Amino acid sequence: MDPQSIADQIIEVLEPYLGPNNARIAVKTFAQRVFKRTPETLTIGDLPDLLEGMRPMLRTLVGEDSADSVVEAIKREVKA
Amino acid sequence: MKFRVLVAVPLAWALVFIVADLLLQGTGGYRVFLRAEIELVKGLALIGCLAAAFSFHPGEYLRRAWLFMGGCMLFLLLRDLTMLPAIEASTAHIDLIQGILVVLANISVIIGIFMLAQAWRVAGLELPGTKGQRWSGVVIALLLAAALGGPGLVNNFVELVSGDASALTGVAMALGDMISLILIAPVLFTALALRGGLFGWPWWLLTASLVSWLLYDGVLEIGPYLGAGEQTVKSVSEMFRALACMFEFSAGLAQFYIVRRTKEDTQA
Known about the structure:
The complex is a heterodimer of chains A (80) and B (268).
Chain A: H1 6-35, H2 47-77
Helix pairs in contact in A: 1-2
Chain B: H1 3-24, H2 30-53, H3 61-82, H4 85-90, H5 94-117, H6 119-123, H7 131-161, H8 167-182, H9 184-193, H10 201-222, H11 230-266
Helix pairs in contact in B: 1-11, 2-3, 2-11, 3-5, 5-8, 5-9, 7-8, 7-9, 7-10, 9-10, 10-11
């Protein structure tokens, strides 16, 4: 079985919160915005910068504490 | 917290209201019941908005949005306080004071709904559908708002211009209703964008609240033309007011629980 891509793993963590549609769009949007690349090309090394890019979006929706908590969960769950 | 409970509570409240309304119509306690119920749902809506607001840190975007939403209910409750006979009889320029409170309430809710409707943009999310589809939604909401709020706005404006200060309340309410109704479209699109996710719940419940206000206005404007009696129009419109306030209460509680649950779920 192929290992899940980095993008798919991030989407999996975000999906219960943002919904499947926006979780996918968010990863695509921020991959493009931060690295000017498609989500499929993301590597584990891109994770810190990607999450810093996504943090303001999460803070807007659930505030600083919960956003930081989601970011930490992604860092924990996503594996190379 | 089961979020479906937050949908069920307003519906159950409306059902109990209908039964109580039917039982109490024509009795001496009917006016007291109606007044108490109206103040109670406004109070609960205020509590919901404050719960949502204070789940965020000072300065955070949605804290401000929810405070503006709650500000509306606070100003309306203050206005209702001025309608107590003892206050009304002893206060000079009471019409003007009441009018100003209603204007402040409407400004507050318009800013609040506008901010909630713009949260997707501030967050950097994308809305579903094409630009054309989204504009079609806004145009439909605009037409509905004009049809339901327009006649009231024109009538009250004419009275205000002819020197009736009490018509200021009517102008502010009609204008506030119209703008709020137009904002149904972007609030609904935000809910659709977040569909299937926890974060979408406050927007779905807020959409239900705004649709209930739309129906409240609709019953008041169109009910008499459909042959509905005065009492029927009053009862049905009050049921929709209760639904609108209770869905706002639920939306605020949903926001509060989401902030808390997200933190709990994602902590190691």
